[in-house]
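Example 3.2
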Amino acid sequence: MNEDPVLAAGCVLWRRSPADGELVICLVHRPKYDDWSHPKGKLKRGEDALAAALREVEEETGHRCTPGPRLATVHYMANDRPKQVSYWAAEATGGHFTANSEVDRVLWLAPAAARERLTQLRDRDLVDELLAALRRV
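Structure, written as tokens:
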């Protein structure tokens, strides 16, 4: 059976901490799965992956962002179907989180703390990739 993958996109959302200027990464908590992840979601029909990533960030975190370097595309199985998630680095430019049924909490964490909090190992590699991409800019 050759099933097309579910296409999704997201961002590793970051900003400078207002307290000390250090880099912090936004993680979202999804009560449906009780997990911590990067903001992401499925593409709408005909939607560009980057447009979907930016839309999902705003829907899930309440923050607008400026996309940066493209990061990895992650492949895994979800509900017995292949899933493909394209990621970008994205700097938060403003907004305000409001809890909703899909995401009930967000945390802004230092990279090491974000790596520890992320539920899926595959999401932890994206933190390292973000840091490497920002060093190159």
